């Protein structure tokens, strides 16, 4: 009986262990490709918004300064005056990296930032604040959960210092996502309790796994080439060759 069970479930168990080891020990050093980073920056997709690897790769690019443009659905409305189009047409020494989606609000931006704090610290950023972020009622949990992932969670848990901001963020996280992973640790933060050494060890292990997972699968999620042509290249011809406020 045991032999039969092993023949059925053994290969599945071994495959699961191998996949886990592959992800856990996958190298976390991004290889740069400026054109692909431009595609990702202008894609304004769910992947480019919430996945770590694409953002980190762009914000560490040695040959171009990518500036985060935080917002929500306004970035999706492309025309010849869109910041991405102007930057490309006039070869500006930076490129906007658009971080926003319809329905994404301040809490999504907060947790998304946790993934890239070392890359954007003491650097420029543009923040467009939407009126929808300031309402008496909290926004729909389904929107928040759609743009939230476990890598954002463990990045937050690694970065937090137990201050008022972390306590408030943890409370809002539990409200927006009651079934969040590592709920016990998040609940401790929401109550202002100090985390144990075991808690920190758990956070560190899961953070490593999530970062490696983002590095492995993030490279396959760039689908921005067609969107770049549609969003940016399509409007370049509508602009004058020489930059001029009067003509624009």
Strand content: 5-15%
Order of helices and strands: HHHHEHEHHEHHHHHH
Instruction: Provide the low-confidence segments as ranges.
Output: none
- Terminal Cα span: 78 Å
Q: By helix and strand content, what is the structural category?
A: mainly alpha
Shape: globular
Report mean pLDDT, rounded to a whole number.
84
How many beta strands in the DSSP annotation?
Answer: 3
> Into how many domains do the coordinates divide?
1
* Percentage of residues assigned to helices: 55-70%
As a whole number of angstroms, the C-alpha radius of gyration is 21 Å
Output the strand order for the largest sheet: 2-1-3
What's the total helix number? 13
- Largest sheet data: 3 strands, parallel
Q: What does this entry look like structurally?
A:
Helix 2 (34-43) packs across helix 13, helix 9 (150-159) packs across helix 12 and helix 10 (164-176) crosses helix 11 (183-190). With 248 residues, this protein is mainly alpha-helical. Helix 5 links the parallel strand 1 and strand 2 (94-99). It has 13 helices and three strands. The protein has one domain. It has a three-stranded parallel β-sheet. The mean pLDDT is 84. The chain crosses the membrane at residues 6-26. Keywords: Membrane, Transmembrane, Transmembrane helix. This is Poly D-alanine transfer protein. It comes from Streptococcus oralis subsp. oralis.
């Amino acid at each position: 009986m045991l032999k039969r069970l092993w023949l059925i479930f053994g290969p599945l168990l071994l495959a699961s262990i191998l996949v886990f080891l592959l992800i856990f020990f996958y190298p976390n050093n991004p290889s740069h490709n400026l054109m692909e980073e431009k595609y990702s920056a202008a894609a304004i997709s769910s992947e480019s918004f919430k996945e770590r690897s694409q953002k980190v790769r762009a914000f560490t690019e040695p040959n171009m300064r990518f500036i985060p443009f935080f917002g929500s659905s306004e970035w999706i409305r492309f025309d010849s005056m869109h910041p991405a189009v102007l930057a490309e047409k006039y070869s500006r020494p930076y490129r906007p990296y658009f971080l926003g989606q319809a329905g994404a609000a301040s809490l999504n931006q907060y947790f998304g930032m946790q993934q890239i704090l070392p890359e954007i610290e003491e650097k420029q950023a543009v923040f467009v604040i939407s009126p929808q972020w300031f309402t008496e009622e909290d926004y729909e949990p389904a929107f928040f959960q759609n743009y939230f992932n476990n890598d954002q969670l463990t990045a937050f848990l690694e970065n937090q210092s137990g201050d008022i901001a972390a306590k408030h963020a943890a409370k809002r996280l539990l409200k927006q996502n009651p079934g969040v992973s590592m709920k016990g640790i998040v609940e401790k933060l929401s109550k202002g309790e100090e985390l144990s050494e075991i808690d920190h060890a758990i956070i560190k292990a899961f953070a490593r796994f999530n970062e490696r997972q983002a590095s492995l699968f993030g490279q396959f999620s760039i689908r921005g080439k067609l969107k770049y042509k549609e969003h940016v290249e399509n409007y370049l011809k509508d602009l004058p060759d020489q930059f001029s406020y009067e003509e624009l």
